[in-house]
């Protein structure tokens, strides 16, 4: 019996089994390309925000296609999305990481502070039981060693401070953003964070010293967390704004100390 051809733009594959025989299945090329594109996008984005690429690295579509064992279409679409996110800049032969100037970074920091302080206020109004559990877990983990209920403003113990990492601090920001229950807000902050990490990765600044002790940042997190748990939206907003203003000052100061020019030299 003749088989009916698949629709245009589809891939016909015979899947065989000793029990059922061979069955023709149809996979739409568009769906397959989109899945591949999204996978490539996530992998390249992860490499960018983790600082694996320098500003002089050139991302060539054909080479990436070989690396990911993919055709040019999903690779080019993934790179175009990353360019749209502000993480890449297009050149003749490919793409390079987009390194923001100090002035551009200041703009990004300013917008992030406005949006994330709004997220803290929204979290105070909207958080649910699951969010509350995350906040309580953070307070137990970030408090002074051996103290399950730290007192506001009390210094974080040195032993506990050493256990906390930057990843812990970043995960706290994700908890606050998710508690705001606003997907658009989360997506905007994710894009802004990525731009900051590509242009000013902490690995670049590791030798310049940290002007902001870990204990100070953790205590600020704890104060914001308590304001959110008390459903004090006004205080949560103000404390988050102050926290991010301090981080901006320290981060820009490190960049200037590391010799970042106002306009990057390629």
TrEMBL record:
Keywords: DNA-binding, Transcription, Transcription regulation. Residues 141-160 are annotated as: Disordered. Signal peptide: none annotated. InterPro entries: GntR_C, TF_FadR/GntR_C, Tscrpt_reg_HTH_GntR, WH-like_DNA-bd_sf, WH_DNA-bd_sf. Pfam families: FCD, GntR. It comes from the Bacteria. GO terms for molecular function: DNA binding; DNA-binding transcription factor activity. Gene3D superfamilies: GntR ligand-binding domain-like, Winged helix-like DNA-binding domain superfamily/Winged helix DNA-binding domain. SMART domains: FCD, HTH_GNTR. Residues 34-105 form the HTH gntR-type domain. PANTHER family: GLUCONATE OPERON TRANSCRIPTIONAL REPRESSOR, TRANSCRIPTIONAL REGULATOR, GNTR FAMILY. This is HTH gntR-type domain-containing protein.
